[in-house]
Design a protein that fits this description.
The protein is mainly alpha-helical. The protein has 16 helices and no strands. It has a single domain, classed as MFS general substrate transporter like domains (Growth Hormone, Chain: A).
Length: 404
Amino acid sequence: MPTREWRTPALVIGAGAVILAVSLGIRHGFGLFLQPMSQEYGWGRELFAFAIALQNLLWGISQPVTGMLADRFGVARVVFGGTLLYALGLLVMSQADSAGGLVLGTGVLIGLGLSGTSFSVVFGAVSRAVPPERRSMAMGVSSAVGSFGQFAMLPGSLGLIEWLGWSNALMALGVVAALMLPLVVVFVGERSRSTAQAEPDLTIRAALAEAARHRGFWLLSFGFFVCGFQVVFIGIHLPAYLVDGGLTLGVGTTVLALVGLFNIVGTYIAGLLGGRTRKPLLLAGIYFLRGIVIIVFLALPLSVWSAYAFGIAMGLLWLSTVPLTNGTVAAVFGVKNLSMLGGIVFLFHQLGAFLGGWLGGWFYDHTGSYDVVWMMAIGLSAAAMALNLPIRELPVARLRPVPA
């Protein structure tokens, strides 16, 4: 009697969710380090913002490569390497007393580490572990549970800063990042258990050429650029924006924690609806609502309660784009090359993230406010809505059933 495989789809989804919770939870709190690090060394906000922007850019540039490696050689090896780089980056960041040290740790090492421990790689394993009709839901569940890390890690990071100081807090977070290492065992051999075995084999070059010829792939990618711009600008600069407006850093931390908390709800609902409704239509609606939420937030007098309301509303729309975007890629191109193709789409997300993070610091240092970048975020919402509306989820020809 054959031995039952203990690495069940539920366990794969759970392990992926924990990795996302740790990886993205730590990253979500980097904005809390902007002021203490900048004040101690006399840096302007642009330097820290540039390091975070570079982190996002390198994360995006390396994501197609790590995705390709995960598709070809397995997720386990990529997550293992990414975790080591992430923990090392936090250690270097904790000792950074110069621009070079900050950029190396925060920008280069953590950026590369994130590419091996985040959505594209994890979703590849999750999507291959479940049948097609459950993929959107599985990605939504893993994103939702993973989002709990963004909620839990923010007050945890703030508490560590207040207790240990920012340097020791980063060292402690490096230890937390290393906790992802034991989870690698869940992904060992995942390709041999994949539900994608029935898909036709395709070389890397052929998969890239197929995607490059597909109009919807580029529309989806440019739409995801907007997501990156908005979430990184808000995630990095919102605490400082609120402090500038007379609120406390604790309020900023609570707002970002609310974003993480309600992101759990938003991503779960997105995954649920993605299996029943056109995913590009849902994406268009999310980008439209983001623009409205930002407009209302800026129009209202700034207060603790308006900030909390913004965190709740934006949280519902925060990473709900991720399972829908990756689900669209899987629906059109299949899952054998999902980590690589999802990584390319994510590259556009990170190009937007680079600009959102860096331009926030640049405009603040040169104009004394974030007004221009807020207006850019609103205009980009309208553009992303228009880009996603024409996308169709029809599978490419090689995946369509052959008529009898």
